[in-house]
Each structure stands twice: as structure tokens, then as C-alpha cells.
Amino acid sequence: MTPTPFADRRAAFRRLHEQGCFVIPNPWDAGTARYLRHLGFQALATTSAGFAFSHALPDAGWAVSRADMLGHIAEMVAASDLPVNADFESGYAHDPEGVAASVRLCVQTGVAGLSIEDATGDRARPLYEVALAAQRIRAARAAIDETGADVLLTARAECFLTGHPDPFRESVRRLQAYAEVGADVLYAPGASTPEDIRGLVAALRPKPVNVLMGANTGLRVADLSELGVRRISVGSSLARAAWTGFLRAARAIAAEGSFSGFDGIVPYDELNAFFRGDLELRR
Length: 283
Fold this sequence. Notes:
single chain, alpha/beta, TIM Barrel, 2 domains, 46% helix
């Protein structure tokens, strides 16, 4: 089979998951992707929330259409030469066949990996039944394999984020089931204590575990590495950090007539020169 233009990126992405611990930050547009590459990160991940917020949409209920999300993912793949993992929400379908169809389209964007979550979007029944959720992951795995692309499949258990009464045990149960049907990487967003993280890594070994750092909990990359975490993502946090600066500056103008929110901002010339290719931003 003739190698695709993305084969090298996909092979590099797979190697990152074989040992050690790495951070996969989440830009929300081409400019932020370019800057993260400049900082030396080895891979990037999209953020459905960051993209949705930038389009005045909520990160819920497939408010961003599948077509718009696929266009965004393709743009992120084209923004740099780094491997990209797609936050592909719940696969834009409830049934396994629909998930498979969506996954095939996602692979065509050139991604090196993609994630499928088990949240339904229904407040009354926030998680798919385990059997159906596993069938969805199995369908995603088969769809990837049919393409012949070496794309890593991340399975997400949303128990911590949906208010499950026993999120740790249920996450382990679900993620073990997803591993059995072909998930390469396992992810329980919301697990934040050292005890939970260590327990997940131990229960899910030898599969690599992704941990979400959505806030400053005091844990550093070195700490997570010691806990056995293989991959660290930040979800919408970088986008929310940018929104925080924007909101503070805009509110100061609106409420106080003050421009204090502009203190310490990056100079226009520095940003412009970076994107013109004449200057590197400070690392």
C-alpha cells in the first residue's frame, strides 16, 4: 500500500505512546497551533469546546455540526507538521454504524488519532449503556482499520464529568470494556486526584492512559509521569485562559472605563513578525 502524506505523523504519534509521558495541548485555531509547535510540543489535539466557543456556540448537543467540525479538524491538521488528535465528541451518531461513518470521514482529514466519548448528551441518561458504548468503540476501530490508516483510537469514559455516583469504578469498568474491543488509549476526563489517577493507570495497564488537566491542581508534568500517565491534555483550558484575559480587559473598559486589562500584553509587532516569519516569539 502506498504511504499517505500523513503516515510519518501517524507513526510518530504512535511512538509517543510507547514510553514516557508527553503533553498534547489543545489549540483552537491555526494561529494557536502554530505557536504551540514553536514551543516544542510534539503533538496537538483539537478542542471541541474551544472551537465551539469561538463560534458563539455551546459545547453540547452537537451544536457544532459534523461538517463544520471536520472542516476545523482538517484546518488544524494543515496548520503545522505535527500529529493531531481529534476531539471527535461522541462520533456524531448514537448507533455504531453512524459512528463508523463519521470516523471514516475524520480519518480522511489526516488526523493521527481521534477520541470517541460515551456521553449521550441526554441529562436523564447521560451515558450510553456499556454494551452499546463498547459496540460504538468496536465500530470506530473497524472503520479505522478499513481505511488502512495507522490512526490511534482513544476511548473516553465520561463518568467523572456526568455526575456518576461511583465515577472511578465505573470508569475502570467501561474503559476495560473499550480496551477489549480495540481502543488504543484510555481516558477518563475529570479524574484529578493522585489516588484516582494512580488507580486508573494500574487498573488499565498496559494501555496508555490520558489525563485531562483542566485546572491548576498543583500537579505538574513530572508528578503525572511518576503516577504512570502516558499523555496529558488540557482540553478547553488554553481557550478558556485566552477568554479570561479577554473578559477581564473588556469588563474593565465597560465597567470602569479602564484599559488596565492591556497591561503586559504581547506587542502587536511581535505577534505580526512571528506570523510573517521574521521573528520568533519568546518561548
